[in-house]
Protein backbone atom coordinates (compact mmCIF):
# COMPACT_ATOMS: atom_id res chain seq x y z
CA UNK A 1 0.00 0.00 0.00
CA UNK A 2 1.54 3.28 -1.16
CA UNK A 3 0.48 6.61 0.31
CA UNK A 4 1.52 10.03 -0.95
CA UNK A 5 1.73 12.76 1.69
CA UNK A 6 1.49 16.39 0.54
CA UNK A 7 2.20 19.53 2.55
CA UNK A 8 1.30 22.46 0.33
CA UNK A 9 2.58 25.85 1.47
CA UNK A 10 2.14 29.31 -0.01
CA UNK A 11 5.25 28.95 -2.21
CA UNK A 12 6.25 25.32 -1.71
CA UNK A 13 5.04 21.72 -1.88
CA UNK A 14 6.64 19.15 0.40
CA UNK A 15 5.96 15.50 -0.38
CA UNK A 16 6.73 11.93 0.70
CA UNK A 17 5.74 8.51 -0.63
CA UNK A 18 5.48 5.67 1.88
CA UNK A 19 5.19 1.92 1.43
CA UNK A 20 2.90 1.32 4.37
CA UNK A 21 3.19 -2.47 4.49
CA UNK A 22 6.78 -2.09 5.67
CA UNK A 23 6.65 1.55 6.84
CA UNK A 24 9.34 2.46 4.32
CA UNK A 25 9.82 5.87 2.74
CA UNK A 26 10.34 5.47 -1.00
CA UNK A 27 10.82 9.12 -1.93
CA UNK A 28 10.61 12.56 -0.40
CA UNK A 29 11.28 16.08 -1.48
CA UNK A 30 10.24 19.69 -1.66
CA UNK A 31 9.67 22.20 -4.44
CA UNK A 32 10.37 25.70 -3.14
CA UNK A 33 10.04 29.23 -4.54
CA UNK A 34 6.96 28.35 -6.60
CA UNK A 35 6.03 31.34 -8.76
CA UNK A 36 9.51 32.85 -8.62
CA UNK A 37 12.01 33.04 -11.47
CA UNK A 38 14.09 30.11 -10.17
CA UNK A 39 12.28 27.33 -8.31
CA UNK A 40 14.22 24.60 -6.49
CA UNK A 41 13.33 20.89 -6.32
CA UNK A 42 15.24 18.94 -3.67
CA UNK A 43 14.58 15.22 -3.42
CA UNK A 44 15.70 12.00 -1.80
CA UNK A 45 15.12 8.54 -3.29
CA UNK A 46 15.52 5.12 -1.71
CA UNK A 47 16.93 2.40 -3.97
CA UNK A 48 16.42 -1.35 -3.83
CA UNK A 49 19.40 -1.75 -1.48
CA UNK A 50 17.91 0.64 1.04
CA UNK A 51 20.42 3.35 0.18
CA UNK A 52 19.34 6.87 -0.68
CA UNK A 53 20.31 9.33 -3.37
CA UNK A 54 19.79 13.04 -3.00
CA UNK A 55 19.83 15.83 -5.55
CA UNK A 56 18.67 19.37 -6.25
CA UNK A 57 17.10 20.53 -9.51
CA UNK A 58 16.63 24.16 -10.53
CA UNK A 59 13.50 24.50 -12.65
CA UNK A 60 10.71 26.96 -13.39
CA UNK A 61 7.52 26.16 -11.47
CA UNK A 62 5.00 28.98 -12.03
CA UNK A 63 2.16 27.63 -9.86
CA UNK A 64 1.03 24.78 -7.60
CA UNK A 65 -0.70 22.95 -10.46
CA UNK A 66 2.56 22.64 -12.37
CA UNK A 67 4.43 21.97 -9.12
CA UNK A 68 2.29 18.91 -8.43
CA UNK A 69 2.58 17.85 -12.08
CA UNK A 70 6.38 17.96 -11.82
CA UNK A 71 6.30 15.93 -8.59
CA UNK A 72 4.15 13.25 -10.27
CA UNK A 73 6.39 13.22 -13.36
CA UNK A 74 9.42 12.81 -11.12
CA UNK A 75 7.84 9.97 -9.14
CA UNK A 76 6.86 8.21 -12.37
CA UNK A 77 10.27 8.69 -13.97
CA UNK A 78 11.87 7.32 -10.79
CA UNK A 79 9.49 4.30 -10.88
CA UNK A 80 8.14 5.11 -7.42
CA UNK A 81 4.68 5.05 -8.97
CA UNK A 82 3.52 4.40 -12.54
CA UNK A 83 0.09 6.03 -12.35
CA UNK A 84 -2.34 7.53 -9.85
CA UNK A 85 -3.99 4.17 -9.27
CA UNK A 86 -0.73 2.91 -7.71
CA UNK A 87 -1.59 5.05 -4.69
CA UNK A 88 -3.95 3.80 -2.00
CA UNK A 89 -4.55 7.39 -0.85
CA UNK A 90 -3.14 10.90 -0.67
CA UNK A 91 -2.80 12.45 2.78
CA UNK A 92 -2.77 16.23 3.14
CA UNK A 93 -1.47 18.35 5.98
CA UNK A 94 -4.07 20.98 6.87
CA UNK A 95 -2.99 23.52 9.46
CA UNK A 96 -6.36 24.52 10.91
CA UNK A 97 -9.41 22.33 11.44
CA UNK A 98 -11.20 24.58 13.90
CA UNK A 99 -13.54 22.80 16.31
CA UNK A 100 -15.18 20.72 13.60
CA UNK A 101 -12.34 18.32 12.79
CA UNK A 102 -11.05 16.04 15.55
CA UNK A 103 -9.85 13.19 13.33
CA UNK A 104 -8.32 12.62 9.88
CA UNK A 105 -11.16 13.14 7.41
CA UNK A 106 -11.95 11.90 3.91
CA UNK A 107 -12.24 14.88 1.59
CA UNK A 108 -15.28 15.46 -0.60
CA UNK A 109 -17.10 18.55 -1.86
CA UNK A 110 -18.79 19.11 1.49
CA UNK A 111 -15.50 18.86 3.38
CA UNK A 112 -13.89 21.29 0.92
CA UNK A 113 -16.63 23.80 1.73
CA UNK A 114 -15.99 23.34 5.44
CA UNK A 115 -12.24 23.82 4.94
CA UNK A 116 -12.86 27.09 3.12
CA UNK A 117 -14.78 28.28 6.20
CA UNK A 118 -11.58 27.76 8.22
CA UNK A 119 -9.55 30.23 6.12
CA UNK A 120 -10.18 33.22 8.47
CA UNK A 121 -8.63 31.17 11.30
CA UNK A 122 -5.44 30.47 9.32
CA UNK A 123 -5.29 32.95 6.40
CA UNK A 124 -1.58 32.32 5.77
CA UNK A 125 -1.76 28.51 5.74
CA UNK A 126 -5.17 27.05 4.90
CA UNK A 127 -5.53 28.63 1.42
CA UNK A 128 -2.26 27.00 0.34
CA UNK A 129 -3.33 23.69 1.90
CA UNK A 130 -6.59 23.88 -0.06
CA UNK A 131 -4.77 24.60 -3.31
CA UNK A 132 -2.70 21.46 -2.86
CA UNK A 133 -5.81 19.39 -2.14
CA UNK A 134 -7.67 20.69 -5.18
CA UNK A 135 -4.76 20.03 -7.53
CA UNK A 136 -4.25 16.54 -6.12
CA UNK A 137 -7.94 15.76 -6.60
CA UNK A 138 -7.65 16.73 -10.28
CA UNK A 139 -4.68 14.40 -10.74
CA UNK A 140 -6.12 11.45 -8.80
CA UNK A 141 -9.89 11.70 -9.22
CA UNK A 142 -10.71 8.23 -7.93
CA UNK A 143 -8.09 8.05 -5.18
CA UNK A 144 -9.21 8.80 -1.59
CA UNK A 145 -7.84 12.07 -0.27
CA UNK A 146 -7.53 12.58 3.47
CA UNK A 147 -7.07 15.80 5.47
CA UNK A 148 -4.92 15.50 8.60
CA UNK A 149 -5.16 18.53 10.86
CA UNK A 150 -2.43 20.17 12.97
CA UNK A 151 -5.10 21.24 15.43
CA UNK A 152 -6.88 17.87 15.83
CA UNK A 153 -4.73 16.44 18.64
CA UNK A 154 -5.48 19.49 20.78
CA UNK A 155 -9.27 19.16 20.57
CA UNK A 156 -9.18 17.27 23.87
CA UNK A 157 -8.11 20.44 25.72
CA UNK A 158 -10.83 21.33 28.32
CA UNK A 159 -12.77 24.58 28.21
CA UNK A 160 -10.98 26.06 31.23
CA UNK A 161 -7.73 25.82 29.24
CA UNK A 162 -8.90 26.70 25.71
CA UNK A 163 -11.13 29.69 26.51
CA UNK A 164 -9.77 33.22 26.78
CA UNK A 165 -11.05 35.58 29.48
CA UNK A 166 -12.98 37.75 27.02
CA UNK A 167 -16.76 37.94 26.46
CA UNK A 168 -17.94 34.39 25.80
CA UNK A 169 -19.98 35.59 22.80
CA UNK A 170 -16.72 36.07 20.92
CA UNK A 171 -16.03 32.36 21.28
CA UNK A 172 -19.58 31.35 20.40
CA UNK A 173 -19.92 33.68 17.41
CA UNK A 174 -16.38 34.10 16.10
CA UNK A 175 -14.64 30.95 17.33
CA UNK A 176 -12.01 32.82 19.34
CA UNK A 177 -10.29 30.21 21.54
CA UNK A 178 -7.04 28.30 21.92
CA UNK A 179 -6.66 25.73 19.12
CA UNK A 180 -2.98 24.83 19.31
CA UNK A 181 -0.73 23.63 16.49
CA UNK A 182 2.07 21.13 15.78
CA UNK A 183 -0.45 18.53 16.96
CA UNK A 184 0.71 15.92 14.43
CA UNK A 185 4.28 16.15 15.77
CA UNK A 186 3.27 16.19 19.46
CA UNK A 187 1.04 13.14 18.93
CA UNK A 188 3.74 11.25 17.01
CA UNK A 189 6.50 11.73 19.59
CA UNK A 190 4.09 10.98 22.45
CA UNK A 191 3.32 7.61 20.85
CA UNK A 192 7.03 6.97 20.31
CA UNK A 193 7.76 7.76 23.97
CA UNK A 194 5.04 5.33 25.08
CA UNK A 195 6.43 2.63 22.80
CA UNK A 196 9.96 3.17 24.17
CA UNK A 197 8.69 2.97 27.76
CA UNK A 198 6.62 -0.11 26.96
CA UNK A 199 3.46 1.45 28.37
CA UNK A 200 0.09 2.43 26.87
CA UNK A 201 0.01 6.10 25.90
CA UNK A 202 -3.26 6.47 27.84
CA UNK A 203 -1.34 5.70 31.05
CA UNK A 204 1.29 8.43 30.60
CA UNK A 205 1.67 12.11 31.46
CA UNK A 206 4.13 13.84 29.14
CA UNK A 207 5.47 17.31 28.35
CA UNK A 208 6.44 17.49 24.69
CA UNK A 209 8.60 20.28 23.28
CA UNK A 210 8.52 20.83 19.51
CA UNK A 211 11.36 23.29 18.97
CA UNK A 212 12.18 24.52 15.48
CA UNK A 213 11.85 27.87 13.76
CA UNK A 214 8.34 27.61 15.16
CA UNK A 215 7.99 26.16 18.63
CA UNK A 216 5.35 24.86 20.99
CA UNK A 217 5.00 22.85 24.20
CA UNK A 218 2.12 20.53 25.05
CA UNK A 219 0.91 19.02 28.31
CA UNK A 220 -0.33 15.47 27.69
CA UNK A 221 -2.37 13.80 30.44
CA UNK A 222 -3.19 10.12 30.11
CA UNK A 223 -2.33 10.33 26.42
CA UNK A 224 -4.46 13.39 25.62
CA UNK A 225 -3.50 17.01 25.07
CA UNK A 226 -4.82 19.10 27.98
CA UNK A 227 -2.95 22.35 27.28
CA UNK A 228 -0.58 23.78 24.69
CA UNK A 229 1.37 26.99 24.27
CA UNK A 230 0.14 28.11 20.85
CA UNK A 231 -3.27 29.71 20.87
CA UNK A 232 -5.86 30.79 18.33
CA UNK A 233 -2.91 31.33 16.01
CA UNK A 234 0.70 30.05 16.05
CA UNK A 235 1.87 33.43 17.39
CA UNK A 236 1.16 32.76 21.08
CA UNK A 237 3.50 30.92 23.43
CA UNK A 238 7.24 30.33 23.15
CA UNK A 239 9.78 32.71 21.66
CA UNK A 240 10.32 31.45 18.11
CA UNK A 241 12.55 32.21 15.16
CA UNK A 242 10.61 35.26 13.99
CA UNK A 243 7.48 35.17 16.21
CA UNK A 244 7.27 37.06 19.49
CA UNK A 245 5.33 34.47 21.45
CA UNK A 246 3.60 35.74 24.61
CA UNK A 247 3.51 39.52 24.98
CA UNK A 248 1.36 42.06 26.84
CA UNK A 249 -1.83 42.21 24.69
CA UNK A 250 -1.86 46.01 25.03
CA UNK A 251 1.41 46.35 23.07
CA UNK A 252 -0.30 46.30 19.61
CA UNK A 253 -2.58 49.17 20.69
CA UNK A 254 0.43 51.13 21.91
CA UNK A 255 2.24 50.53 18.60
CA UNK A 256 -0.84 51.61 16.70
CA UNK A 257 -1.19 54.91 18.60
CA UNK A 258 2.40 56.00 19.19
CA UNK A 259 4.60 55.05 16.21
CA UNK A 260 1.32 54.93 14.24
CA UNK A 261 1.79 51.41 12.90
CA UNK A 262 -1.08 49.87 10.95
CA UNK A 263 -2.65 46.51 11.86
CA UNK A 264 -0.87 44.87 8.92
CA UNK A 265 2.46 46.34 9.99
CA UNK A 266 1.99 45.12 13.57
CA UNK A 267 1.02 41.67 12.31
CA UNK A 268 4.19 41.54 10.19
CA UNK A 269 6.28 42.81 13.10
CA UNK A 270 5.07 40.18 15.56
CA UNK A 271 5.09 37.23 13.13
CA UNK A 272 8.08 37.91 10.89
CA UNK A 273 10.38 40.42 12.59
CA UNK A 274 10.28 39.43 16.27
CA UNK A 275 11.35 36.41 18.31
CA UNK A 276 15.03 35.53 18.05
CA UNK A 277 15.36 37.70 14.95
CA UNK A 278 14.00 40.71 16.77
CA UNK A 279 16.41 40.26 19.67
CA UNK A 280 19.65 39.63 17.80
CA UNK A 281 18.93 40.01 14.09
CA UNK A 282 19.10 36.28 13.29
CA UNK A 283 16.54 33.48 13.52
CA UNK A 284 18.76 30.44 12.81
CA UNK A 285 19.85 29.06 16.19
CA UNK A 286 23.12 27.73 14.71
CA UNK A 287 24.08 31.22 13.60
CA UNK A 288 23.03 32.64 16.97
CA UNK A 289 25.28 30.16 18.81
CA UNK A 290 28.21 31.18 16.59
CA UNK A 291 27.53 34.83 17.31
CA UNK A 292 27.32 34.18 21.06
CA UNK A 293 30.62 32.27 20.94
CA UNK A 294 32.33 35.42 19.61
CA UNK A 295 30.96 37.48 22.50
CA UNK A 296 27.86 38.93 20.86
CA UNK A 297 25.72 39.96 23.85
CA UNK A 298 22.47 40.25 21.90
CA UNK A 299 22.89 36.66 20.65
CA UNK A 300 23.49 35.39 24.18
CA UNK A 301 20.48 37.35 25.39
CA UNK A 302 18.36 35.74 22.66
CA UNK A 303 19.44 32.26 23.83
CA UNK A 304 18.79 33.14 27.47
CA UNK A 305 15.33 34.52 26.74
CA UNK A 306 14.46 31.56 24.52
CA UNK A 307 15.38 28.98 27.17
CA UNK A 308 13.84 30.98 30.02
CA UNK A 309 10.44 31.08 28.31
CA UNK A 310 10.54 27.31 27.76
CA UNK A 311 11.48 26.73 31.43
CA UNK A 312 8.44 28.72 32.50
CA UNK A 313 6.14 26.55 30.42
CA UNK A 314 7.71 23.33 31.71
CA UNK A 315 7.12 24.51 35.29
CA UNK A 316 3.53 25.49 34.50
CA UNK A 317 2.77 22.17 32.84
CA UNK A 318 4.34 20.21 35.69
CA UNK A 319 1.78 21.97 37.90
CA UNK A 320 -1.02 21.16 35.45
CA UNK A 321 -0.10 17.46 35.19
CA UNK A 322 1.05 16.80 38.76
CA UNK A 323 2.96 13.62 37.95
CA UNK A 324 5.12 13.67 34.81
CA UNK A 325 6.55 10.50 33.25
CA UNK A 326 8.76 12.11 30.60
CA UNK A 327 9.92 15.35 29.06
CA UNK A 328 10.33 15.05 25.27
CA UNK A 329 12.48 17.21 22.98
CA UNK A 330 11.79 17.16 19.23
CA UNK A 331 12.01 19.43 16.17
CA UNK A 332 15.13 20.81 14.51
CA UNK A 333 16.44 22.58 17.63
CA UNK A 334 15.02 20.10 20.13
CA UNK A 335 16.66 17.14 18.39
CA UNK A 336 20.01 18.66 17.47
CA UNK A 337 20.97 21.41 19.92
CA UNK A 338 22.55 19.94 23.04
CA UNK A 339 23.36 23.40 24.47
CA UNK A 340 19.72 24.48 24.35
CA UNK A 341 18.59 21.23 26.00
CA UNK A 342 21.24 21.62 28.70
CA UNK A 343 20.26 25.23 29.40
CA UNK A 344 16.55 24.42 29.52
CA UNK A 345 17.02 21.50 31.91
CA UNK A 346 19.50 23.25 34.20
CA UNK A 347 17.94 23.96 37.61
CA UNK A 348 14.87 21.78 37.05
CA UNK A 349 15.90 19.07 39.52
CA UNK A 350 13.06 20.31 41.74
CA UNK A 351 10.73 18.75 39.15
CA UNK A 352 12.81 15.58 38.94
CA UNK A 353 14.47 16.68 35.68
CA UNK A 354 18.21 16.13 35.45
CA UNK A 355 20.25 15.16 32.40
CA UNK A 356 23.52 13.33 31.75
CA UNK A 357 25.90 15.60 29.77
CA UNK A 358 27.47 12.66 27.93
CA UNK A 359 24.11 11.27 26.83
CA UNK A 360 22.96 14.78 25.94
CA UNK A 361 25.95 15.18 23.62
CA UNK A 362 25.10 12.01 21.68
CA UNK A 363 23.65 12.23 18.18
CA UNK A 364 21.28 9.59 16.87
CA UNK A 365 18.41 9.07 14.48
CA UNK A 366 16.72 6.99 17.18
CA UNK A 367 15.24 7.78 20.60
CA UNK A 368 17.73 8.70 23.33
CA UNK A 369 16.91 8.98 27.04
CA UNK A 370 19.33 11.64 28.26
CA UNK A 371 18.31 11.58 31.93
CA UNK A 372 20.95 10.98 34.59
CA UNK A 373 20.71 8.72 37.66
CA UNK A 374 19.18 11.48 39.78
CA UNK A 375 16.32 12.19 37.40
CA UNK A 376 12.96 10.78 38.47
CA UNK A 377 11.51 11.05 34.99
CA UNK A 378 12.76 10.28 31.49
CA UNK A 379 14.11 13.07 29.29
CA UNK A 380 13.80 11.93 25.69
CA UNK A 381 15.20 13.24 22.45
CA UNK A 382 12.84 11.84 19.80
CA UNK A 383 13.13 12.59 16.07
CA UNK A 384 9.73 13.69 14.83
CA UNK A 385 8.22 12.42 11.59
CA UNK A 386 5.10 14.38 10.79
CA UNK A 387 4.90 12.95 7.27
CA UNK A 388 4.89 9.37 8.57
CA UNK A 389 2.24 10.30 11.15
CA UNK A 390 0.10 11.82 8.38
CA UNK A 391 0.56 8.65 6.31
CA UNK A 392 -0.45 6.43 9.25
CA UNK A 393 -3.51 8.56 10.02
CA UNK A 394 -4.42 8.54 6.33
CA UNK A 395 -4.20 4.74 6.23
CA UNK A 396 -6.31 4.48 9.38
CA UNK A 397 -8.92 6.77 7.85
CA UNK A 398 -9.32 4.84 4.60
CA UNK A 399 -9.33 1.48 6.40
CA UNK A 400 -12.25 2.71 8.50
CA UNK A 401 -14.13 4.06 5.47
CA UNK A 402 -16.05 2.62 2.56
CA UNK A 403 -12.84 2.60 0.51
CA UNK A 404 -11.71 -0.44 2.52
CA UNK A 405 -14.88 -2.39 1.77
Q: What features would you describe in this structure?
A:
38% of the residues lie in helices and 21% in strands. The chain is of the alpha/beta class and 405 residues long. It has 2 domains: 2-149, 2-Layer Sandwich (Nucleotidyltransferase, domain 5), CATH 3.30.420.40; 199-386, Nucleotidyltransferase, domain 5 (2-Layer Sandwich), CATH 3.30.420. The chain has an 8-stranded mixed β-sheet, with helices on both faces. Strand 1 (2-8) and strand 2 form a beta hairpin. The longest helix is centred in the C-terminal third of the chain and has 25 residues, at 297-321. The radius of gyration is 21 Å and the shape is globular. The two termini are 15 Å apart. The mean pLDDT is 94.
List keywords for this structure.
405 residues, alpha/beta, Nucleotidyltransferase, domain 5, 2 domains, 8-stranded mixed β-sheet, 6-stranded mixed β-sheet
Distance between the termini: 15 Å
Q: Helix/strand/pairing class, anyone?
A: alpha/beta
Question: How many strand units?
Answer: 14
Number of helices: 15
Strand order of the largest sheet: 5-4-3-2-1-6-8-7
Radius of gyration: 21 Å
Overall 3D geometry?
globular
